[in-house]
């Protein structure tokens, strides 16, 4: 099983193949992580986001026990999976920064 991942604070993004065997193995790894660490993974907040054409997405989500998401999405307030040159994608980020700058200027 080849898995790539990104960690940020208490978030983890895991990249793996989209077949039942890989997802089942990932599910076992997460269960063993919980058992070994005493930490609990909140699968209610977890999302399975697929890239490209994938069959049986519902079956994979059930195997992991999480919801199904789609790209583009927002992660940590930034657009994920959207075309980076699309100006409208960045409107929310720009507006939040304008508000923060205005607040800093007032202080």
Automatic annotation (TrEMBL):
Start and end residues of each Reverse transcriptase domain: 4-78
Source organism superkingdom: Eukaryota
InterPro entries named in the record: DNA/RNA_pol_sf, RT_dom
SUPFAM superfamilies per record: DNA/RNA polymerases (SSF56672)
Name by which UniProt lists this protein: Reverse transcriptase domain-containing protein
């Amino acid at each position: 099983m080849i898995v790539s991942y990104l960690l940020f604070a208490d978030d983890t993004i895991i990249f793996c193949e989209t077949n039942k065997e890989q997802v089942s193995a990932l599910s076992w790894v997460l269960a063993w992580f919980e058992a070994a660490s005493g930490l609990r993974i909140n699968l209610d907040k977890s999302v399975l986001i697929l890239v490209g054409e994938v069959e049986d997405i519902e079956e994979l989500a059930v195997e992991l026990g999480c919801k199904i998401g789609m790209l583009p999405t927002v992660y940590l307030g930034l657009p994920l999976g959207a075309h980076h040159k699309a100006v409208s994608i960045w409107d929310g980020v720009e507006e939040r920064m304008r508000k923060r700058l205005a607040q800093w200027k007032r202080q």
